Amino acid sequence: MKDIIIIGVGRFGLILAKELFEKGHEILAIDKDKKRVQKAVDYSTYAVQADFINEENWGKFEIDKFDVGIVGIGKNLYDNLAATFILNKFNVFYIIAKAKDKLQGELLKEVGVDEIVYPERDIGVKVAGELDDNFAMKLNN
């Protein structure tokens, strides 16, 4: 069981929180948006409405205690990079971040991300592969 902090619980972050929480991991879900935090309550150990980027909040989260940090912030490049930088600064062991394009992914690597996720691209590749496999199986039957 790992202690995981998820910053940004929109669609991507919420799905991760749910799946990881159901597998028994301790989850701290953080988002600025109250509605998103309310959705995360059932899928996290703690769900907090806060601005993770605000330095005054860092001490409240005990960031250095987490094994994994996941940055699910997609739209705001500054917040995405800053959250990643903060996790790295506090020596979070493994950091995963969402990127919308190759350049953002490269920037995230520069600030210390261990794994970059491109949700739209990744699901497109997965569905295309499954479609190709399923079509081939139907042809062989």
What does this structure look like?
With 141 residues, this protein is an alpha/beta fold. It has a single domain (3-140), classed as NAD(P)-binding Rossmann-like Domain (Rossmann fold, 3-Layer(aba) Sandwich). 48% of the residues lie in helices and 19% in strands. The chain is built from six helices and six strands, in the order βαβαβαβαβαβα. It has helices spanning 11-22, 34-40, 58-61, 77-89, 102-110, 119-140, and strands at 3-7, 26-31, 46-49, 68-71, 94-98, 115-117. It has a six-stranded parallel beta sheet with strand order 3-2-1-4-5-6, with helices on both faces. The longest helix is centred in the last third of the chain and has 22 residues, at 119-140. The radius of gyration is 17 Å and the shape is globular. It starts with a strand and ends with a helix. The mean pLDDT is 90.
Question: Short description, anyone?
Answer:
The chain has 141 residues and is of the alpha/beta class.
Characteristics:
Rossmann fold; six-stranded parallel beta sheet; 48% helix; 19% strand; alpha/beta; 141 residues
Any chance you could write out the topology, listing elements then pairs?
Blueprint: E1 3-7, H1 11-22, E2 26-31, H2 34-40, E3 46-49, H3 58-61, E4 68-71, H4 77-89, E5 94-98, H5 102-110, E6 115-117, H6 119-140
Helix content: 40-55%
The separation of the N and C termini measures 43 Å
- Poorly predicted ranges (pLDDT <50, ≥5 residues)? none
Using the coordinates shown, work out and report the CATH topology. Answer: Rossmann fold
Return Rg in Å.
17 Å
Which CATH architecture?
Answer: 3-Layer(aba) Sandwich
Order of helices and strands: EHEHEHEHEHEH
What portion of residues belong to β-strands? 15-25%
- The overall strand count is 6
Can you identify the CATH superfamily?
NAD(P)-binding Rossmann-like Domain
Mean pLDDT: 90
Number of domains: 1
Structural category:
alpha/beta
SS element count, helices: 6
Biggest sheet overview? 6 strands, parallel
